[in-house]
Amino acid sequence: MILSENNVFFVMGVSGVGKSTIGNLLSKELGIPFFDGDDFHPKENILKMSKGEPLNDEDRFGWLATLNKLAKDQLKENSCVIVCSALKNKYREILSNGVENNTKWIHLVGSYELISERMKQRSNHFMPTGLLKSQKDILENPVNAINVNISLTPLEIVEVIKKELNPKSEFGLFGLGVMGKSLSRNLASKNIKLSIFNRHVDGIEEDVAINFKNEFEELATTKAFDNVEQFVNSLQQPRKIMLMVNAGKTTDIVIESLIPYLSDGDILIDGGNSNYNETKIRLDYLLSKNIHLIGTGVSGGEEGALKGPSIMPSGDKEVYKTVAPFLNAIAAKDANNLPCCTYVGKEGSGHFVKMVHNGIEYVEMQLLAEVVNILKLSGNNYDEIADILESWKSAADSYLLEITVKILRKKEGSDWLVEKIMDKAGNKGTGNWTTIATAELGIPSTLIPAALFARYSSFYKEDRVKLNRIYDDGNTSSLNLTTEDILKAYQFARIINHFQGINLISEASIKYEWELNLSEIARIWTNGCIIKSNLMVELVAVLKETSNLLGYEKFVQKIKKLKPSTNKVVSQCVLNEMAIPCLSESVNFFNGHTIANSPANIIQAQRDYFGAHTYQRIDDPSGEFYHTNWK
Ligand SMILES: NC(=O)C1=CN([C@@H]2O[C@H](COP(=O)(O)OP(=O)(O)OC[C@H]3O[C@@H](n4cnc5c(N)ncnc54)[C@H](OP(=O)(O)O)[C@@H]3O)[C@@H](O)[C@H]2O)C=CC1
Ligand SMILES: O=C(CO)[C@H](O)[C@H](O)COP(=O)(O)O
């Protein structure tokens, strides 16, 4: 710790609290001289105390003045630690006389029982245990002292003192939107000394940080800023600043606004949903300026960010170690009470993993929407559908299932709110990027594009309404499905979704040499995040053995049990002219992915016909490429 100015640190408290031990340790930690006040007592005082006679104020005044002179002399050169009981206000006034602004009081406190027990164990101290009571009686608790409980170990006590002495914040959070606000409260509630920042925009964004700070008790000691320079300067070095701003251009603008005030070795943590390719570019760019970047996925939405999100950090592993204590402190905990935060890998792998998390999320949401629609067209109202979904919890529990039940039950007056919500699904880009990534990497994660394009289709509301007038022949639904069948189709499609998402991560890990740990990724997704589910809990163990769920015996048995109902649900929906993009794609994908001989031979022949692209032959195991003159 670097001290910004010279100070005298008086370590005070009644006898037996360990002032000398702590004072000594603290002086070593701070690299400053140590003085034990007892060594400055005149002989008469020591004699009195060893006879068991308490010192009176007259006895003390000379001694206190000596210590005050010592402090003043030291302050001319350096800081120092002085140990002295300093029990009364008037003693402390003498001790700090003339150096009040450079005096820090560190008060060691403990119960009578604990102190007397410790005193009994001392052999070479001149203060008998009986005097403890008289000291406790005359003690006037200091105001503005750092109070530290002696039940901690000496090293822990010194850590607490150092933390309290340093006026600078340990962690900064930039961007007080939905996520930034919740994360700030989470960080502050973990006793992390925090600085928060939100931009100032005249007439639109004014005093956001200070108003937010004043709203919540846990932010009482948090420093709030709307000036970037002051915000950065309020942080201990190396600075650790988490950005919770919009991905893309905004992230670049924010980074540029910070750079002029940052120092070598400072660390930015991008917690937004940034594109993993951009994260790699930013990481290299910042490194050229000796600044580190940890790109991290954060999932859990507003509530998760407050109570404990799932956190997916990546970048340089050594740099990560510096920010790990903060991220671990605020993360959700898994069933074994371990943080749902782990070092994911190099470069932008954390953002890649978060992107696939969101791709899986898109599919899980779409599947639930399709299921609700099937149950609706089967004649159930929304309360009845909520009851059915609730009954699925034992078989297919997930955060998204739980919130869907609540959503379906939400009423405005006597109307279900969902009936009033416009059927145009928005998106912020991660589903789009996952679709691009799966295409670029050549991985058939087909459900994510299906869910994404379902959202895009939903946006054509006006066209849909017009076309519906043309094509709707007025037939009513003749769905004849049991809720058991629908549940099985839902479970089947979820297995395919998780298989595809994991496969995408696994293949990207190989291609980019990220060495991702799939089981560990599933583990940090068991709590705090939007796709937490009991299936995810099951996957933690499975992924230690294989990344291929479709070939894993337990899942083979599940799939065989679920497939007939899935076929039934999908075929009946198609016959009833329903759009079920993810349910149907799960069957299509599965059939295509498990067929020994696919019609891709026709594609190869066509390619060779028009473009001489060549083909391989099944009757030539050498893998030789052939071309035929087709005309
Ligand atoms: N909402 C969610 O459920 C989740 C969001 N995320 C990601 O976290 C990030 C933040 O999301 P969220 O909190 O929801 O978003 P919000 O829109 O609620 O907040 C965005 C923040 O960015 C700030 N900002 C925008 N433009 C600028 C700029 N030019 N300069 C400085 N600051 C700017 C905003 O400040 P101001 O208020 O002044 O405009 C605000 O503090 C995004 O990347 C998002 O994708 C990740 C997981 C979940
Ligand atoms: O990251 C998230 C959840 O995990 C965000 O809520 C994200 O905005 C969701 O994506 P979209 O807005 O595209 O639905």
TrEMBL record:
The record's SMART domains line, in alphabetical order, gives: 6PGD
**Membrane in keyword set:** no
Give the range the annotation lists for the signal sequence: none
Q: In which pathway does it act?
A: Carbohydrate degradation; pentose phosphate pathway; D-ribulose 5-phosphate from D-glucose 6-phosphate (oxidative stage): step 3/3; Carbohydrate acid metabolism
> What are this entry's molecular-function GO terms?
ATP binding; gluconokinase activity; NADP binding; phosphogluconate dehydrogenase (decarboxylating) activity
Q: Which NCBIfam families match?
A: gnd (TIGR00873), PRK09287.1 (NF006765), therm_gnt_kin (TIGR01313)
The molecule here is called 6-phosphogluconate dehydrogenase, decarboxylating
